Amino acid sequence: MRINENHPLHGVLSDKPRRPTTNAKEQWGTFLDKLETAIGEVDALGKESDKLTQDAVLGRVENLHDVMIAAEKAKTAMNLTIEVRGKVIEAYKEIMRMNF
């Protein structure tokens, strides 16, 4: 699956494997920063969609297409976030089942 550069989870998910150039603690901090940014962007898309929907209900929007596009962007971003969360939980459970 290819993720568009403008997508909120672009920095978290990547097709290219990267070699670690820093220690694990720095990598974890970088991952958390990117994850936090991605979740913030998904939240911003949801808030933008809610605002445009409210403006449409109040008659302040001239183009209803913009409202629908914003709603679909927010819905898609949220669905992707939920799917990623599910995969992370599956991976965590699989690691917990491993015997060392």
Describe the structure.
The chain is 68% helix and 0% strand. It has one domain. The chain starts with 23 loop residues before the first helix and ends with a helix. The protein is elongated, with a radius of gyration of 18 Å. The chain contains 2 helices and no strands. Helix 1 runs antiparallel to helix 2. It is mostly helical and 100 residues long.
Q: Main traits of this protein?
A:
68% helix, elongated
Shape by Cα distribution: elongated
How large is the count of helical segments? 2
What is the helix content? 55-70%
Secondary structural class: mainly alpha
SSE order? HH
The average pLDDT is 87
Q: Please report the distance between the alpha carbons of the first and last residues.
A: 32 Å
Largest sheet, in brief, is: none
Strand content: under 5%
Number of DSSP strand runs: 0
Unreliable residue runs: none
Number of domains: 1
Q: Whole-number radius of gyration?
A: 18 Å
